Amino acid sequence: MHQQKRQPELVEGNLPVFVFPTELIFYADDQSTHKQVLTLYNPYEFALKFKVLCTTPNKYVVVDAAGAVKPQCCVDIVIRHRDVRSCHYGVIDKFRLQVSEQSQRKALGRKEVIATLLPSAKEQQKEEEEKRIKEHLTESVFFEQSSQPENRAVSSGPSLLTVFLGVVCIAALMLPTLGDVESLVPLYLHLSVNQKLVAAYILGLITMAILRT
């Protein structure tokens, strides 16, 4: 004698309910978001009937607020926001989806979905970015920075060689140029223009080196 396979008795309120999404966000400045879709999935081997409840039913229109879902199927539930006013900005409403077997009245499971009306998507992105930065700064852990003495070269001023070269260059610039007949300086101490340019260039380099020390 074959025994009929009995389905295990389901405990009231313990059946997992699969709904997507779990949060509805309506934007006042974007009319396309005033209509949202909830998808209820039934992964079980038996049919389910469902009912949609709301904390503020006067603000929404729910198309097919009650119905049935076949085994391993899904159904879309359309929700429209019909009271888009600034006084409702930021207010969190809740929808509750209750499911039960078609032959029973008791609710086997329930799932809540929150709904929020915001003024603008851009404003929400700005607030989320500010919140993210604030949380990041709050959660950051700072450690004490150990300090180490910096090895700096002690400036001792220009060297004697630098000073000597500077004096030589100045003296070279003060000597007469070749072709200066009226000079009393001996002819072998007369310098050409190119030699004086070289002396002036070296004197400039020495001056820069002294200023940096």
From TrEMBL:
<keyword id="KW-0812">Transmembrane</keyword>
<dbReference type="InterPro" id="IPR039283">
    <property type="entry name" value="MOSPD1/3"/>
</dbReference>
<keyword id="KW-1133">Transmembrane helix</keyword>
<keyword id="KW-0333">Golgi apparatus</keyword>
<dbReference type="Pfam" id="PF00635">
    <property type="entry name" value="Motile_Sperm"/>
</dbReference>
<dbReference type="InterPro" id="IPR000535">
    <property type="entry name" value="MSP_dom"/>
</dbReference>
<keyword id="KW-0472">Membrane</keyword>
<feature type="transmembrane region" description="Helical">
    <location>
        <begin position="187"/>
        <end position="211"/>
    </location>
</feature>
<keyword id="KW-0256">Endoplasmic reticulum</keyword>
<feature type="transmembrane region" description="Helical">
    <location>
        <begin position="153"/>
        <end position="175"/>
    </location>
</feature>
<feature type="domain" description="MSP">
    <location>
        <begin position="16"/>
        <end position="143"/>
    </location>
</feature>
<dbReference type="InterPro" id="IPR013783">
    <property type="entry name" value="Ig-like_fold"/>
</dbReference>
<dbReference type="InterPro" id="IPR008962">
    <property type="entry name" value="PapD-like_sf"/>
</dbReference>
<comment type="function">
    <text>Plays a role in differentiation and/or proliferation of mesenchymal stem cells. Proposed to be involved in epithelial-to-mesenchymal transition (EMT). However, another study suggests that it is not required for EMT or stem cell self-renewal and acts during later stages of differentiation.</text>
</comment>
<protein>
    <recommendedName>
        <fullName>Motile sperm domain-containing protein 1</fullName>
    </recommendedName>
</protein>
